[in-house]
Specification:
The protein is of the alpha+beta class and 280 residues long. The chain has seven helices and eleven strands. Strands 3-2-1-6-5-4 form a six-stranded antiparallel beta sheet, with helices on both faces. A five-stranded antiparallel beta sheet has the order 8-7-11-10-9, with helices on both faces. A hairpin with a 5-residue loop joins strand 7 and strand 8.
């Protein structure tokens, strides 16, 4: 009897071990396949979400770039800039320009910090809400060379507004005399960053996901860690690879560490602005 049991045990062992091994191998293959599918699905979702967010932010910029372009071709501005210095000082002349600037500001007061045009001939600025031009030399401004070089709407790195104290970014374009390359002025709009910050903050990625928005110069416009707002990405505690990717505008999937955890994201560029966004 014992001999039969021993034989039976050997047979079960002989058959059972290979079956168990085959089962484990099969389970491992299935698990690996499922894991790969989930990873691919996650990457696909992250890519789509990142690109969608970048597109929405790009559309946000496009709206204000178009406003600036319309200011450049505004007939009233063109006529004003081509007047003599004496004629420009007459209230009926700059008054019309001032009213136009005010009207543009009133179309979006929640986002505009200020709307203005600058005259190269008299080195003066007409700003919304002001009854008369003020002294303003465009050539002394830090943005002058970059705007002149681009000859189109240029997005200026966000900065602290001296009047409101809030963070703003500027869109500035040179104004040339119609049909010539003669520079006669500049058109500019200063946009509050607060609304853009809130917009990105409201973007949801699952239950715990977040987005990072950086300017062309690497300034963190939005990061879930509020202490990093306005700081350069190089000053953050994120891993080196995401910092480098943002600095170099390297589009693509990326795994990085931030806020003490591993994050899976996809870095996207925001239109042609040089800004980047990435979920985490």
């Amino acid at each position: 009897m014992k001999r039969k049991k021993s034989l039976l045990s050997k047979m079960l062992l002989f058959i059972g071990v290979p079956v168990a091994v085959i089962f484990c191998i099969t389970a491992l293959i299935v698990f690996t396949t499922v894991k790969q599918s989930v990873t691919q699905l996650t990457t696909s979702q992250l890519t789509a979400e990142s690109q969608a967010a970048s597109y929405q932010i790009s559309e946000y910029f496009s709206k204000y770039k178009e406003v600036t372009k319309q200011m450049v071709t505004n007939d009233l501005f063109q006529q004003y800039f081509q007047m003599s210095a004496a004629d420009k000082t007459a209230k009926q002349n700059y008054g019309g320009v001032s009213q136009t600037v005010d009207n543009i500001y009133k179309t979006d007061p929640d986002n505009y910090s200020s709307v203005w045009v600058a005259d190269c001939a008299t080195n003066t600025l007409i700003l919304n809400g002001k009854s008369a031009p003020s002294s303003f030399n465009p050539t002394e401004r830090p943005w002058y060379q970059s705007v002149i070089a681009k000859k189109d709407v240029t997005i200026i790195e966000p900065y602290k507004d001296a009047i409101t104290g809030g963070m703003v970014m500027s869109m500035i374009a040179p104004i040339y005399k119609t049909g010539t390359s003669d520079l006669i002025g500049f058109a500019g709009i200063d946009i509050s960053i607060d609304r853009l910050y809130k917009t990105v903050q409201d973007y949801k990625l699952g239950k715990t996901g977040f987005y990072i928005l950086s300017s062309a110069g690497g300034q963190l416009i939005y990061h879930p860690n509020t202490e990093l707002k306005g700081k350069n990405v190089s000053e953050s505690n994120m891993s080196k690879n995401i910092i480098t990717a943002i600095q170099n505008k390297t589009v693509g999937a990326i795994t990085y560490t931030a806020m003490g955890q591993t994050n899976y994201g996809y870095l996207s560029t925001v239109g042609d602005t040089g800004w980047t966004s990435a979920p985490g």
